[in-house]
């Protein structure tokens, strides 16, 4: 099964505010972009992924993610994360109605293509499925089989909300890179320990130099 991933990317100036203890206002946009670029590059390298649709209104993010090979969908609803994901999924399905779709967080800088393939293979057994984040509270991946609405419910306590919506919770070991999103400085340190992509590594190295 070949999936289309829908990846939402906030305007970079507003992204990753919870990293203020680690990166200042001048650094956070570049760090958020690095996360997204490493996430999308890894997703495009996954054998189970046919393509990636990025939903964003940020011109720089759209330009650089398109250069990697992602399709860019304008965030026309401008109604928040779930509206953006529903819009992106609808755009994908309008072009290819029989496509299985998955919403993937844009802040998975340690993402490994092989681990993502394992998660998608497991998800393909169900009509809708999701993978909880490393904290066990949120969600990093939500999938929908062909002919099924994605029905995203990201946000606070999304693990419980996706479970309540009827999506099957995936319980897999050895897929840490797909679960480790980055919202805080502690999350970033954990992702760095797992091994992040080259763009995130470069920005993180500058952060460490600046902090000396």
Automatic annotation (TrEMBL):
Signal peptide as annotated in the record: none
EC number: 2.7.7.105
Superkingdom of source: Bacteria
GTP-binding keyword on record: yes
Record: residues binding phosphoenolpyruvate: 139, 155, 158
Keywords tagged on the record: GTP-binding, Nucleotide-binding, Nucleotidyltransferase, Transferase
Alphabetical GO biological process terms: F420-0 metabolic process
Pathway note: Cofactor biosynthesis; coenzyme F420 biosynthesis
Family of the protein in this entry: Belongs to the CofC family.
Function: Guanylyltransferase that catalyzes the activation of phosphoenolpyruvate (PEP) as enolpyruvoyl-2-diphospho-5'-guanosine, via the condensation of PEP with GTP. It is involved in the biosynthesis of coenzyme F420, a hydride carrier cofactor.
HAMAP family: CofC
Protein name, entry field: Phosphoenolpyruvate guanylyltransferase
Organism of this sequence: Streptomyces parvulus
């Amino acid at each position: 099964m070949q999936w289309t991933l829908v990846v939402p990317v906030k305007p970079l100036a507003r992204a990753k505010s919870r990293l203020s203890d680690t990166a200042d206002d001048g650094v956070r946009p570049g760090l958020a972009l690095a996360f997204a670029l490493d996430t999308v590059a890894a997703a495009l390298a996954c054998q189970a992924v046919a393509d990636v649709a990025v939903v964003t209104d940020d011109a720089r993010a759209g330009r650089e993610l398109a250069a990697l090979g992602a399709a860019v969908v304008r965030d026309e609803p401008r109604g928040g994360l779930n509206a953006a994901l529903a819009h992106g999924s609808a755009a994908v399905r309008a072009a290819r109605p029989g496509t299985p779709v998955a919403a993937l967080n844009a802040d998975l800088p340690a993402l490994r293509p092989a681990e993502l393939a394992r998660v998608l293979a497991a998800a393909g057994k169900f009509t809708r499925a999701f993978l909880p984040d490393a904290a066990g509270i949120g969600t990093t991946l939500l999938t929908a089989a062909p002919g099924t609405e994605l029905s995203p419910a990201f946000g606070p306590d999304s693990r419980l909300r996706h479970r309540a919506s009827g999506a099957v919770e995936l319980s897999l070991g050895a897929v840490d890179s797909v679960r480790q999103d980055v919202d805080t400085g502690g999350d970033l340190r954990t992702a760095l320990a797992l091994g992040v992509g080259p763009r995130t590594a470069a920005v993180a190295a500058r952060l460490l130099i600046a902090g000396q």
